[in-house]
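#structure-requests
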Amino acid sequence: MQLRKEMGRWTPRLSAELGLLAVLLTCCCAQENPCFAVRAGTCSECLQAWKDCAYCPEESFKGPRCDLYENIIAHGCSAAAALTAKSSMMIERKQPINMRLKQSQVSPQQVSMSLLPGEEKEVDVEVFAPTKGPLDLYILMDFSNSMVDDLNNLKRMGTQLASLVKDLSDDYTIGFGKFVDKVVEPQTDMRPSKLKEPWPNSDPPFSFQNVIKLTSDAAFFDSELQKEKISGNLDAPEGGFDAILQAAVCGDKIGWRDNSTHLLVFSTESSFHYEGDGVNVLSGILARNDEGCHLDAAGKYTKDTQQDYPSIPTLVRLLGKHNIIPIFAVTDHSYTYYEKLREYFPIAEIGRLQEDSSNILTLMRVAFESIRRKMSIRAEDKPKAFVTNFLDTSGRVVEHGAFDFKPGAIGNFKMRLSAQQMVGGKPVCQLEPLGKKGSIRVKPTTFNAAANVDATILCPSCECEKSAIPAAAKCHGHGDLVCGRCQCYDGWLSTFCNCSESSAAQDTSRCLGPDMKDPCSGRGDCLECGTCVCYNPDQFEGEYCQYDKTDCQRYGGFLCNDRGSCIRGRCACNEGWAGNACECPNSNATCLDSKGGVCNGRGECVCGRCKCPESDMSMTSTCAPNFEAQLGVCEGTRSCVQCQAWKTGEKKDKTQCDKCPFKIVLVDELKEEKDVAHSCSFRDEEDDCTYRYNVEDWKPDSKVKELQFQVLKKKDCPPASLLWLLPLLLFLLLLLALLLLCCWKYCACCKTCFQSCLALLPCCKGGRMVGFKEDEYMFRQSLLTSDHLDTPMVRTGPPKGTDVVRWKVTDNVHRSPTHPQVLMKPNPKEIIPFPISLRLNRLFSENLSRPDSRDAEQLRKEVADNLNEVYKQIPGAQKVQKTLFRKQKNAGKRQDFAIMDTVLSAPRSSYPDIVKLTQKNVQSGNLHDLKVVPGYYTVATDREAAGAIEFQEGVGSVDVHVPLFVKDEDDDKKQLQVEATDVPLGIAEIGKRFVNITIIKEHATGVFSFLQPAYTYSRGDGVAHIPISKEIIEEGSSQVTYRTRDITAKDKKDYVAMEGDLTFGPEETQKIVPVRLLELSEKDGLLADKQVRQFAIDLSNPRQGAKLGRYPRTTVTIADEPDPSVMMFKKGSQNFSTTDPTYTIPVVRTRNQDIPATVKWRTKKAQRFELSDLLKFSPGETEKNIVIDPRAHPGPIQPETIQLELFDPSVNATVGERKTTLVNVADGPHYKPLEMEQVQNKSAVKGGRLFSPTNLKAKATGPRNIRLNWDAGSGNPAGYKVKYWIYGDPEKDAQVLDVKSPQAELTDLYPYCDYEMRVCSYNALGDGSDTDIVTCQTLEDAPGEPGRLAFNVISPTVTQVSWGEPAETNGNITAYEVIYTPIDDDLKAVGAAKKVKIDNPKKRMLLIENLQRAQTYQYKVRAMNSIGWGPFKDASINLASQPTRPMSIPIIPDVPIVDAEAGDEYDGYLMYSNEVLRTPTGSKTPSVSGDDYTSNGKWDQNFLFPGGSATRNLSSSSSPMSTVGSNYRGAGGSFTETNTTYMSGGSQRTDMIRGGMHSSEVIMRKRSENRSYMDENIRDSIVMGDVSGNFPDLNARLSPGIPDTPSRLVFSALGPTALKVSWQEPRCDRDLQGYCVLYQLLNGGKMNTVNVTNPAENSVIIQDLLPNQSYLFKVKAKSQEGWGPEREGVITIESAVDPKSPLSPMPGSPFTLSTPSAPGPLVFTALSPDSLQLSWEKPRKPNGDILGYVVTCEQLHGGGDVRSFEVNGDTAETSLTVPNLTENIPYKFKVQARTTQGFGPEREGIITIESQDGSSLSQYNSQSMSSREVFQMPTEVSTRMNVSHTMMDPYFSDGAMMTTQHMETSGMVTRQVTKEVVQRSVMGGTTVTKKMFYES
C-alpha cells in the first residue's frame, strides 16, 4: 500500500512532464539530446549535464524545463529567465620566445580554464628548439660475444664519435653503458668456469653496467672505452630492456641534464627478453619489475636475478617521462623486431647496423637529423575527465611525431582540450576531485619546458535552489516551489499538488480535453488526478496526448523539411528557416546570381527561390535568360534583335516582339569583339543583308540590371545585280558544253580520264571546293566531354565524283619559336603511343560497342593480328593494344561502317614512317588480310596528327575527328591548327584551308563534383543522401545547381525528384542532397523480373567563379534488398589485467560498409556492473571500439571473466559469427605480445629506380574479383606490376599483372579466399620498390555440391547417409538439406519427398529409419552458406539389394578439416603464439601437457579449461524419456552444454534399460591446456576411459598415500639436441621421495630412465637427443606407498644441421625449420576383412623435394609387432595397401614425409575393420545409443552448443534418430579433424556400443 502511495505521488507529476519533455529539437543532427537524461532532475543537475543545457525556472512555463537553450525559448521561456552556465579561460603567463636563448622554450607558460561537460577549448602554443641545443648522448651496447667486432670498431672510432657529437651540438655530454643478460639459467651458463670467463679474454657475465657517466670530456670518454672487454651468455635474446630501464630512471647516476635533448643509442644484433616471455618461469624469477634505480657504486645493476624484465608499455612510459628518445642501431638479423618495437614509441628511430658496426656514426647522424625534423606533443598528468588533441595551424588533427618543426624556428600548433560528458558510465561531475581537476603539462617529447594548463570541470549550481518557497500558493499550499517546479508533500499529487490520494483521484473524466471522447485522446493511460501518460512519449505529447509529433506539415517528404521540429502540431523552425513546413530560408543566399545580385534584378526572392516575371524565353533559376537552352546567346537572341531593329524575322509580329525580355540600342559603331561578352552576326532572309550586334553583361554599378544589346544600324548588303553579264555567261556556258562533249567523246571509256579532263578545265576545277566550315572554335576546357572534336568539312560545287582530302593538326601553334617548350626538343628514341583509326569494310553493330562481347573479342583479335603483321617493319614498334570500335555520325555514306581505334607504341622518330605505311595500305584497301575502306585514316602522337577523309558522291559534309591533345601542362589558353593539306584523289580544290581551335583553361575558385560516379541505396533506407563536394582553390562563396533526372527509375514512383541551388560558404567543402526513396507498389513488387531502377543527379550552372569537376553527374541505383552489414567481435576473447586503465574491445563490420548501421551490446556475468549501449557505424567505418572503464564502478577491481554480447542490430545489419567475446581480467600486468611483421624499406632506391607506390588499397568487388587502387608516388613510371597470390602460399608463386594506370582489377579468383597483394612501378631502369603487402578476402559465392555420398546400410529399412563438405565451400557452410524421395525404375517419384534441414554444418550424416522395404530411394544433399543454397549431390539406392553391412567403411576424407595443415600436425620447434616476437633459439614458451580428467573420484575437466573446475552429471531413468547431460566449465573458457533425449514406446524402452548398457570410448585430445599456439606445434596424447555396467562409481580414487599424476609438463628447448623438462609437484597425502623421468623415441626404441631422488627438484636437462625426432616423455612421482600414475607429453626439436657436423650450431645460436610438414589427412578404404588401402596427400609445406614416406602400423591397445613400410615418390596423392590385418582390432597408422633434411612430423589415423559376425539388428531387439561429443577449443573461443537427439517413431524401438545441432561460436578454430566409426552387435538383451571418437 505504501509503495502504491509512493508511486501515486510521483507518477502523475512525472507523467505530466513526460508529455512535454519528450520533445526532441535536435533538428540538424540525429544525436540524442543529452539534456533529456536529467529532465526529471534538479536545476543544478540540468546545468551539469551538458555545455548547452539550460533551465527555465518560470512558474508558468509548461515545456521541458531542462533542454537546449533554443528549445526552451521555442517553448515559451523568456530569455531573461533562462538559466545557463558559462566557462572561462585565462592565459596567466605568456613570455614571448627568445630565439637567442639556446634552450627549448614553450609559450604560453601558464593557462587556466574551466570547461562545462562536453565543451572544448583551444589554445595556441608556440615551441622553439635551438639549432644546436644542449645534447646528452648515451650509448648502450650489447656486450655478448657476437658483438666483439662491433666493440673493437667502436673503440677505433672513439675520436670520430666525439667529433660527431661536437658537430651535432655546441653543448654536449656523452656516456656509455653495456649489457648482456640476467646471470641465471637458462640465460647464462652457470658453471663456475663460465661465470669467471664465458669466452677467452672476456669479462664475467653481467646484466647491465653504467661504464662512463655522461661527460663533456671526449678524451676521458675515449680512454675509458679502450679498457672494455666483451662478455657472453647462452641464449640469443638479450636483457637489453633491463639496461634501458636503469638508464632511464637512474638520472643522477647516468648524468642526464634538465635542459638538454636526451638520446639513447641502443646497439645490438639480437632480439630481446621482455616481461612474461616465459624464460623467467624456468629461472624462478616471478616478481614484477619495480621500475626503481638499482645501480651500485660500480654502476652495476643489482636486482637482475630478483625481478622480471620490464614490459614494453613500461619502457614507453618511463622513456617519455624522462624525455629520452631511443635510437635502435640493430643488424639485419633482428631489424624487423625493433622496427615493430619502434612503433610503440612516440618518437624513436631505427637504423640498419652493419655486422661489425662500422657504420654506427653515420647511422647516429642520420637518426639525429630525422629526430630533429619530427616532434611529438604530449599531454602529461591529464585528469581522466579530459581528452586532448593537437592540431596544426590549419586545424587538422596531427598524429604523434608528425609535427615538422624546424630547429632554430618557432613552431605553432593548437591544443584542443575537451571535457567529457560521461566517464565510465556516470556523469563527469560525479567524479572524484582528482578526476575533474588537475594541471596538464603540454610539451614536445624532447622538451623539459612545458605549457602548464590548470583545467577544471565546471559543475554549476542554481541559486534558486537555495531560496525555495515553502507551502507555495502555486502549489496550493501542499508543496514547496523550487526553481519554478512544485515538490509536493506526502499525500498530494499532480504538477501543482492540487490532487489528494483519495478515490476521487481515479476519475478519468479529468483526462478528457475539449471535444474529446476518449481519455487521453486514446493515446495514453489516465492516472490519478487526471494525469495522462502517453503510450509513446516520442510520438505523442500534450496534456491529453492530443498532439502527434509526426503530424506536422512535410516538405519533400521530410517532416518540417528536416529544418525544424514538430511541437504541439506545428513546425517550430530552426534559426534561418520559416514557413509552415520550414521550407523557406530567411536569407536570399539561394537567390544570388553570378554577379552577386538578387534574381538578376528581374524577379523577387520568395521562399529561397527567384520568382521570375512571365516570359516566353526560358529563364534560369536566378531569372537570367537561359540562352544555353537555345544553343547559345546569339542563337537565342537573334529573333528578338531582328524584330526590334528591322521588324523582320519570325517575331516580326508586334505582339510576339513585345514579349522579348530585353530591349536593344542601335549604335553607329560596335565595340571590338574582345571588349564584349558576345559578338553576333546573322543574315536577314528578307533582304539577304547581314546584321551585326554585341551582347554585354550589365555592370555592377549600372541601374539597369540586365544584358545590353547594341545593334549596328547599318546592314552589310551585297552590291546591285549586273544584268549585262547575262549574255556573256550564256556564251561561256555554251562553250563549256562544247568542251565537255569533246572530252566525253575522247575519254568515253575511262571515268577517271573523264575526271582528269575536267580537272584540266579551269572552269570545272574551280567549280568544286572543299574546306572547313568554320574559321575558329573556342572551348572552355571544363566543358569538354571528349578528347576529340568532330570538325565539319564541307564540299561545294557539283556533288558527283569522289574527293579524298588529307589533313593534319598541330598543337600549341600560339607559342613563339623562342618559347621554352618549343626549344625543348623531345627525345626521338622515346617510346610513345600512336593512336591509329581506320574505317573497316564492315558494318557496325551494337555488340562491337561492348568490349566484352564475343563479336568484339573476335574482331579485336583479327585487327591485332593483321596490324601487328603490317607494323612489324617499323623498328622498335610494339604490338597494338586498347582496340575499340565505334561509328561516326557525319561520315557520308560510310557512317554505318565500323571505325577501329587502336594504339601502337613505337619510337617517336618513326611518326613519318607510320603515316606513310598507313596511307599506303589504306589506299590499297587492305592491311595484310584486314579489309578497310580507302580514303579514311588517322595517325596521331601527343602533339601532332595526320589523316584523311573521303567525300563520296552526293555527300557535301564530313566530320574530321580531330584530337585535342589536352594535357595538364597546357597553357592557360592554347591553340591548335587544323590544315587541309591536299586532295590526292578527286578534282576539288581546297578553299578554307585552316581552322583554329582555342581551348581556355579556367582558374576557378572552386570545383564542384560528386564524390563518386555512382551510389546504391536500398528502398528501406528511405532517403538517399548524396554528398556534393567543393574543392576550395580560392576562398569565397559559390553556388551550383542540382537536378535529378529519370533513367529507369521514375519520379513519384520510385523516388521524389529534387532540384535546387546549393550555396557553399567560404570554408564549406561538402553538402548533402537528400532524395526521398519510395516503396515499391504492389504491382511492381509482384513482378518476378524487376528492372534495375536508376536515376541521375546532374550538377550545372556553377556560379561565382566555380566550375564543375570530375563527376558532374552521379547515378543512383535503387536496390530492393541490399546485403546486410555483418557486425561481430574482432576476437573471440580479450585479455586484460587489473592494472589496465580501460578495456578496449574492437567490433568489426564486413559487407555493405557504405551504409550506416547500429548494433547494441551488453555485458554478462560481470561482478561489479551490467553495461549496455548502442554502437553506431557511419558509412565507410569498418571498426569501432567498446571501451569499459573498470575504475568507474564501485568495488575493488578483481580478476574475473566478463562476457560481452552483440544483439538487436539495425534492420540493414546482422550479427556475425562472433556475437560474443570473453574479457579475461587477470592479476598483475597484461603482456601484449608484439606482432612483428616484415616492413618493406621505403627509403630512396639507388640508381634512379622508382620509389614504391603509396596508399595501396584493396577491395573485394565480387566472389572472384578484387579491385586495387594506389597512388603513383614520385617519378615517372612506365607502368606497374601487380603481384598477387593466395594467402599462405610463397610469394614466388605469385601471378603478375602489368597495368599502365594506378589501378587494377584482379579477376578469376577463388571465392571467399584470402589473397595477398603488392605493387611496384617500373621504368626503363627496371622495377622499383614494392609496397607493403595488403590482404583482401574475396566475397562469398554459393557453395558447390557436397562431396561423395556414402551409405552405411544398417538394415533393409535403416540407413545412415553421410557426405563430404563441398570441395568449393565459397564461404562458411551454415546448414545442409537432405531430401529423400521414393522413386520407380524410371527415376520418377512415387511418393512424397521428405526434407531434413541440418543446422549444424559439422554434422554431415543422418540416420534414416522406417524406410519402405525393397523400395528405391533418391537421396539429394545440398549445402548452404550466407549467399544461399548450392546445387544438389544426388544418388539412388535400394537397401534390399545391399549387403547387410558395407565392405568400405564410410570415413569421409574431409570431415571437418580446415586445410592440409591440420591441427594434429606438430613441430617441435616451440612457439609462443602467432602474435608474439619469435626468437630464433633459446627458451620458448612451454608446451604444456594436459591434466588427467579423473582425480579425487570426479571427472575433472581442467584439461579443457585451465584453472576451472567441472563436474560430469550422468543420470538414467526408467521412464520412456531419459536425458544424459554434461556440463564443462572453465575459467575464462568455453561453456558447452549437451543434451541427448531418447523417446520410445513403453515396454520396449523398459526392456532396454533393464538390459543394461555397456559403452567403451577411445578419445584422442590435445594435451596442451588449450594454450594458443602456432599452426604446427601441438602434440596429441591418448586418454582412455571405460564406462561399464550402469555407469561406474565415479567416487573411487587412488589408494591413500599414492601420489597423483604430476599436474603438468613444461618443455623448453635449449638447443637442437638439448631439452629441459619441468613439472609441477603432484598432490599426495604422504611425503614425496622422488621422481622418475622416462623417455624414448615416439616410434619405438630404447626406454631411457632418469631418477630424481631429491623431491625438491622438479626439472631435468636431457642431452644428446636426436634432432627432428619426436620423443615421448613420462614423469611419475613416488612416495613410501609406491609410484603414482604417469604424466605423458610428446615433444620434437627440429634442426636443419646434424649435431655432429662442424656446422652444428653453438648453444644459443639460431636453428631453423626445414623439414616437411605433415602429410595430408589419411583416408582408409577396407578392401577385405583383413586388408585396407591407405591414401594421403602431399604435405602442404614440403620445404624441399619429397624423397618418400615412412608408414608405421601398430595395434592401438598394444600387442603385435610394429610394422613399417617405405613408399617412394613425390606425387600429389599417394596410397598404400596394407594386408594381414585382424578384424575388430583398432589400428593406429602414422605417415611421415622424408626429404634430404630429414623426416617431418607424423600424420596419425585410427581405423577398425569390423567383422561380418553381427547380423542385422532386428526391429525387436532392444537398443541403446551412446553419444558423446568432445570439443576441444582454444581459450579464445567461446562456444555454446545444444545437441538434441529425438526418436521419430515413438511406437517403434527402431525409430529414426534425427539429429539437429545449434552451435554459436566466437573465436576461431583453425584445425579440427573428426573421424567416427560406430560398431554394433547383439548380446542377448543388451546392446554393446563401441564408439571411437578422434578429434584433434
